[in-house]
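Example 4.3 (complexes with small molecules)
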Amino acid sequence: MTKLSWTGFSKKTPQERIQFIKEHLPIASATSYRLKEQELLSLTTANQMTENVISRMALPFSVVPDVLVDGQHYHLPYVTEEPSVVAAASFAASIIKRSGGFQTSLHNRQMIGQVVLYNVPHMQKAQAAIAAETKALLAIANEAYPSIVKRGGGAKMLTQEEKGDFLIVYVTVDTKEAMGANMVNTMMEALAPRLEELTGAPSLMAILSNYATEALVTATCTLELRFLSRNQQEAVTLADKIARASQLAQVDPYRASTHNKGIFNGIDAIVLATGNDWRAIEAGAHAYAARDGQYRGLATWDYLPNKACLKGSLTLPMPIATKGGSIGLNPSVKTAHDLLGNPDAKTLASIIVAIGLAQNFAALKALVSTGIQAGHMKLQARSLAMLAGAKEAEIPQLVTELLQAKHMNLATAQAILKTLKK
Ligand code: NDP
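Answer. The structure with NDP bound is encoded below.
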């Protein structure tokens, strides 16, 4: 994608932003049309996607521009209702870009399915029988979903483990561009009868695991202190405090939960925009955060005084898809993929983990300096003004007065609006 100045983007109207995107990004003409006409999910399509549909629900669709990941510039579609999240991500991404951007690595990209057997009559014999048939079992799994094998994917490895009263068979599957839940579930259900035959044990369930430890992605960045603050001493203090905040999230689950929520402010926004299953991503990541028995912060920051830099790192499972599920159905999802330049699933996973790290940096920097509320208050005041029923022209004055009020709440907003209308 081209290098381009996004200065002033946030000050434009939505129409001006669309015009800017149409003029400067190599988006498809269909995307340009969808943006211009604001084409959204139709009721007919929505009704085909899930059950008991009566309407659709809209959310703000924003852009976090110019995020530098592995030397490429990406403009990220963000779907979130929370004020400050887009501004924080944009701020963090822009200062991380000046320090060279994000570097990412993909450890693997496979999903894991499991068939769980119970009441196993003879555990050792059962395990031996499964081990002897590994190849044939993988073949059964692949025959159950031949199209993924044709695409170069499919079931690759089978292992087993005794856990409590259960014998659990794990199968890793390369699901290519799909998240693979339905694929893996189909394969596991096909395996269950043969495993029952082999072991004489009934199967309790056969399903994908969302703990996608074979789909880990790491994003790192190295921030030069001079970009933290122009004041050298202040930059050192900030770096030291951010590193301490990261240590805190390693030892205190109360903080770790909020630390990780901040990461998901960014990750969920793009996972949702790209039509992916955010429950699956959240479930896998939170399990990974507790992998050693204690729930910990997923992103870590180290202050390296001898190199005058702050180094950030985030690793989590990211089984993101560019095909399958509802991805091809929702017009806004197509717009999101097009804005990103239609990356493949591995690249998309890298971009998402990178922005999770950026979002965490923005939250920590605010927390250890001005506090989180300073940035939130103006947007909170705006939300209150809208809730109070202010018209577009009344909002700026109402926000100014709300920010000066002793108690910033809906009642105050309504009272100010009343006087403004007089
Ligand atoms: P799909 O069932 O939609 O399967 C993927 C589809 O994408 C297939 O039709 C496949 O075609 C097509 N496709 C096209 N190109 C490719 C490619 N290059 N690589 C891979 N597939 C391609 O989706 P998934 O199996 O990924 O399942 C995801 C859905 O399952 C989500 O909606 C999720 O919410 C849901 N789900 C999640 C669960 C969980 O997380 N625990 C449990 C149950 C469901 P073809 O068939 O021709 O190969």
